[in-house]
Amino acid sequence: QDNSFEQFIINYCNEKLQQIFIELTLKEEQEEYIREGIEWTHIEYFNNAIICDLIENNQTGILAMLDEECLRPGTVTDDTFLEKLNQVCATHQHFESRLSKCSRFLNDTSLPHSCFRIQHYAGKVMYQVEGFVDKNNDLLYRDLSQAMWKANHSLIKALFPEGNPAKINLKRPPTAGSQFKASVATLMKNLQTKNPNYIRCIKPNDKKAAHIFNEALVCHQIRYLGLLENVRVRRAGYAFRQPYEPCLERYKMLCKQTWPHWRGPARAGVEVLFNELGIPEEEFSFGRSKIFIRNPRTLFKLEDLRKQRLEDLATLIGKIYRGWKCRTRFLLMKKCQIVIASWYRRYA
């Protein structure tokens, strides 16, 4: 119930993770259909980039204003930080405060004057401003890091690399919010270079107890995790897509016209293959560079046919090998018999 600076930066990280989830699963998938020339009806979804910008914008973001309060001279308190938020974020649709311009729209009198509320993708969260400035300004002074770096223990020395006299930086150490923001940016950069797989965990109850299923809580999570939009995109879209060359190489053994070698464009080979297998036209679409298969059962059918074909080919190879081996043995025995017979007739 009481959320302070720690929960704020945790929720900020969750917002960034949700944003990359949206980018890779909803936005990117729909853009791929457009790039490939697939007939597609755009499905609307909530993009939480506006919430991320509210927190991390370099000029008007909450973290930027918090750093500015920590750096400016004069009397700085949590109340002055809240006043600054009320001035800059007053008209933002995802920011609420009793003193902001949005207060006239608020019917919830339980929001204290020393708090602000952010409407995150997963719901509204109220934050107590008490301690924000001190926690963000929690710095390790330069002389302390230098003292720890001089320790004889190798582990302690490694934990304080900024204490190395050769790397002394006279600039003011970054605030806790700036360090966390930089860490999140590095995490997002690493995730963008990967091909992530998502597992969404739904919490059935708040008691961490077995055999209790809170339907309202589960529906809340499904709604705010973007799962409904994801399901709609998946149902309206295609479950599987693959470039023409790998697709033809994997399934060409299922058609006599494409096996063992197809002389022509890969897309034409895939068209011949799918027509030969009798796959309904509504089950797939041809893009500019990829084949799109709508239902998983079509892909399972292709895999089952391929598996059966591999077994048939393995049986054929084994049959031909055993025939060759027996024929080779027979010819060798026949040759030996002729040699023995000819020598026998010579001395008979």
UniProtKB/TrEMBL annotation:
Signal sequence region: none
Family: Belongs to the TRAFAC class myosin-kinesin ATPase superfamily. Myosin family.
Domain of life: Eukaryota
Gene coding for it: Myo1b
UniProt keyword list: Actin-binding, ATP-binding, Calmodulin-binding, Motor protein, Myosin, Nucleotide-binding, Repeat
Name used for this protein in its record: MYO1B protein
ATP-binding among keywords: yes
GO MF terms held by the record: actin filament binding; ATP binding; calmodulin binding; microfilament motor activity
InterPro entries tied to this protein: Kinesin_motor_dom_sf, Myosin_head_motor_dom-like, P-loop_NTPase
GO CC terms of this entry: brush border; cytoplasm; microvillus; myosin complex; plasma membrane
Region (Actin-binding): 184-206
Gene Ontology terms describing biological process: actin filament organization; actin filament-based movement; endocytosis
Domain Myosin motor: start-end pairs: 1-307
Presence of the UniProt keyword Nucleotide-binding in the record: yes
